[in-house]
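Researcher: Sequence recovery benchmark, item below. Answer with residues only.
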């Protein structure tokens, strides 16, 4: 079994005093591109440019919200061919576009999430819009992860709740997995399943801190999302963290729902917990 996991993770209240040295320890090269939305760039550009020494040469590519994702990815993939690595900075869309563009260009990439709305931070799958539908594409895991708690705390509460919801849905995903193992002899990996459940239990145990957006609460949420992604990468698919509750979410997407992914998965997990005979009220 071949398993690829990020080998460097930097999480601090403020990562910027450590950013330059962190990038140097990765030994990826000197030329890179930061892929992000215009709003995130406006918020963090000064801090980033003050932090990174002249040893590096970098530029930004902005994700145009009005453009088709397939067109954006094609453009980015061409533009980063001469770069040593790329950084995906921002929320889920910027991260997914970065990881898929990096995969197509065979470039290492770094995840720098500013919004913790789902567990795709470290997964090797990218959710890409194609012909009006969201499609899960094979991509590559990040070579490193950067988490600035000061920035993450300022994200809209709804997005934080969505990340929490995506994690607690791991409980019903694992129940589905156990059932499939019993009924149709699907391969079940106990250690991976426990890692998936650990991610859910961790955020449940720290619900108050996450709701209040304390630094410790945000750190727990980020580490739990990372562990959830690790579980998927170790197993080689999204199976440990995606079950019928995710199918429920995809069905809502087909109906044109504007809810966040984690919100829909959390709602679906209540229904699936009831069907599994679990304590769905709790």
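Model:
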């Amino acid at each position: 079994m071949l398993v690829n996991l990020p080998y460097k993770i930097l999480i601090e209240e403020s990562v910027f005093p450590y950013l330059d040295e962190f990038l140097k320890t990765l030994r990826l090269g000197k030329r890179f591109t930061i892929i992000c939305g215009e709003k995130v760039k406006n918020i963090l550009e000064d801090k980033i440019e003050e932090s990174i020494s002249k040893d590096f040469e970098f530029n930004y590519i902005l994700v145009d919200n009005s453009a088709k994702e397939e067109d954006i990815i094609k453009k980015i993939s061409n533009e980063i061919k001469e770069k040593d690595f790329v950084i995906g900075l921002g929320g889920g869309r910027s991260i997914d576009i970065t990881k898929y563009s990096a995969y197509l260009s065979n470039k290492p990439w770094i995840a720098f999430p500013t919004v913790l709305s789902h567990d795709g931070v470290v997964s090797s799958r990218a959710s890409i819009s194609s012909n009006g539908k969201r499609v899960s594409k094979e991509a590559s895991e990040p070579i490193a992860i950067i988490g600035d708690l000061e920035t993450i705390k300022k994200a809209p509460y709804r997005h934080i709740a969505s990340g929490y919801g995506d994690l607690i849905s791991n409980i019903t995903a694992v129940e589905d997995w156990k059932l499939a193992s019993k009924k149709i002899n699907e391969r079940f990996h106990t250690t991976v399943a426990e890692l998936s459940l650990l991610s859910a239990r961790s955020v449940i145990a720290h619900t108050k801190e996450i709701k209040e957006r304390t630094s410790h609460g945000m750190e727990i949420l980020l580490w739990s999302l990372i562990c959830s992604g690790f579980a998927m990468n170790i197993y080689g698919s999204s199976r440990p963290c995606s079950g019928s509750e995710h199918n429920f979410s995809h069905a809502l997407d087909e109906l044109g729902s504007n809810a966040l992914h984690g919100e829909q998965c959390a709602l679906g997990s209540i229904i699936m917990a009831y069907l599994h005979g679990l304590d769905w009220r709790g």
